[in-house]
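Quick one, tokens below. Sequence please?
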């Protein structure tokens, strides 16, 4: 009986010491602005009172909206392809890159040769309004440097992350093109802390069981 109890106690303690996994997330946003812009989002750091931080997941959502136009300046007809795009980069406070997304929207059209009017209209030109694109991507970091950087000393500590958005719009299809872009971009940032915390209730119960066993043995 004694041997069985001791084995159960040892196994139970081992299971209790195995930490419970948990996550907590914080978010920030940058409202739509005309590119090129640089802004910041304030994210709450991990509270070490919760447990031990294991890794950090960064989710970046980029949104692009705007208008494009072209004029085919070549004398021959061509299929014009245009892309409204933005490159949105999430950075640490020291401006080192964490992750990026490149949301975009595309349009194409067959164009006649240049009609001698560079007005983004007529047979050799067009404007397209209301293009929009959205993209979400994520990455995970478990480096010692990021664990330290994103761990606070109090429950209210924050970290300011830089978000940088530049226009990446383009056009192709003719050797001579007049291009026009109006590009706005916005971003959403989500930071998720994956951490572990020991199970104090189970450890306490097993400790009581161990004390009762010792007391019974002495009796």
């Amino acid at each position: 009986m004694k041997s069985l109890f001791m084995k159960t106690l040892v196994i139970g303690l081992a299971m209790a010491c195995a930490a419970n996994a948990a996550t907590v997330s914080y978010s920030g946003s940058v409202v739509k602005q005309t590119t090129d812009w640089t802004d910041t989002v304030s994210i709450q750091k991990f509270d070490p009172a919760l447990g031990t931080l294991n890794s950090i997941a960064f989710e970046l959502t980029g949104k692009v909206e705007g208008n494009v136009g072209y004029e085919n300046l070549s004398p021959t007809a061509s299929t014009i392809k245009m892309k409204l795009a933005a490159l949105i980069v999430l950075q640490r406070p020291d401006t080192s890159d964490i992750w990026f997304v490149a949301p975009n929207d595309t349009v194409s059209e067959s164009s006649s040769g240049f009609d001698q009017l560079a007005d983004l209209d007529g047979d050799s030109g067009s404007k397209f309004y209301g293009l929009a694109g959205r993209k979400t991507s994520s990455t995970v970091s478990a480096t010692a440097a990021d664990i330290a950087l994103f761990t606070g000393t109090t429950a209210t500590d924050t970290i300011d992350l830089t978000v940088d958005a530049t226009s990446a719009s383009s056009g192709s299809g003719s050797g001579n093109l007049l291009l026009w872009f109006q590009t706005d971009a916005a971003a959403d940032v989500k930071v998720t802390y994956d951490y572990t915390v020991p199970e104090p209730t189970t450890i306490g119960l097993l400790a009581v069981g161990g004390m009762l066993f010792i007391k019974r043995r002495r009796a």
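Residues 20-196 form one domain. The mean pLDDT is 88.
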